[in-house]
């Protein structure tokens, strides 16, 4: 007889003996308590990179109780022993993520913060360049396309697999960044002429009806809404638990990210249509009186004012102790982030500069209504190269993996156009027939191009 059969037979004899003993000891039909079998549940947890789908080896996974934890194997898998309803995953270079256990298993997606583009311009400095993202010019076919059915003026933002953007029709969309599937949407009372921000799973949206709203990223539940009474084109800047933006009444707001309660306000002498940036630990924003204001983030107190412009529509960008901002009066300025002193001025011959610059590798990339897309030396303002777009440029540029993207402002009878040029020499490497304003954003392993009303996703 095989060993397995003998063990099974012995187990059966033990159970029969226990049953017989139970009957004789009680004198009835009930069994006496026998040895208890302790069945300890096991939970299979799989940890993957949320952008590439690759397994994350050596990730720490723990349950609700910190004593229940382990590390993933080379396949990104681990089994936790014990009653676990929620698991938390973490790994070096990734943000921590939490998910629920369902039917004895759980899947955790980890995302690298350095690969996210969570605010307009990528981060608080508004450089429109996420250096860690490596994805070249788009191929022939996108991984997915989403048609918003109305004008998309500002590019999306992306955090941990969630992509969000607004339309001139007043709708905010939240999509799955990998598939383009709609997760949720909402309609506001006015056009959305700005990019949202996504910080720690909360989506902040400003709109031309004078409101700023906060939504829970998972399901679109509205957490709060603040009405300012004046249109807002300023994309929200979220830093240190506060949200900064300006409106047409010339008021700069700092509100608490968690509640929407106003912390402080600052009144500028002109309308504010551009976004604020964080530069040298100050909130910097331009207005339509031709001034740039640097404010204390905690109190709103003025640190310095530059008053040498005409009208500032596009917002500033900051890098290397310098601020670059375009002027509707026909110039691009380089300012000291510490003092506001003018370091250089580049003239566009009176052509409007509505765009905000992209900053990368010691240069500012910006276009104007004269049709020139240019690279300006960040230190001196000297022109490194010029690319002729063949039409006006209104939207802001974006730099992705050594390529600067810009779009031509569409006019009736003209073909739409988005280009990508190499930042080292201005050579054309991409040319497509869609686009109007800000043309691109990148996060994870994807490049998202923005057409007139469509968003195209290309995977590296």
Output the strand order for the largest sheet: 3-2-5-6
How many discrete domains?
3
Mean pLDDT: 91
What does the main sheet amount to? 4 strands, antiparallel
> Which band does the percent of strand residues land in?
35-45%
Count of helical regions: 1
- Write the CATH fold name of the largest domain: Methylamine Dehydrogenase, Chain H
Please tell me the CATH architecture of the largest domain by its name. 7 Propeller
* CATH homology superfamily of the largest domain: YVTN repeat-like/Quinoprotein amine dehydrogenase
Helix content: under 10%
Helix-and-strand structural type: mainly beta
Separation of termini? 60 Å
How would you describe this structure to a colleague?
- The chain has a four-stranded antiparallel beta sheet, with no helix packed on it. Strands 8-39-38-37 form a four-stranded antiparallel beta sheet, with no helix packed on it.
- The protein folds into three domains: 1-35; 42-110, Carboxypeptidase-like, regulatory domain (Immunoglobulin-like); 114-459, Methylamine Dehydrogenase, Chain H.
- Mean pLDDT is 91; it is low at 1-32.
- By secondary structure, the protein is mainly beta.
- It contains one helix and 39 strands.
- The longest helix is centred in the N-terminal third of the chain and has 24 residues, at 3-26.
- The chain is globular, with a radius of gyration of 28 Å.
- The protein is 5% helix and 41% strand.
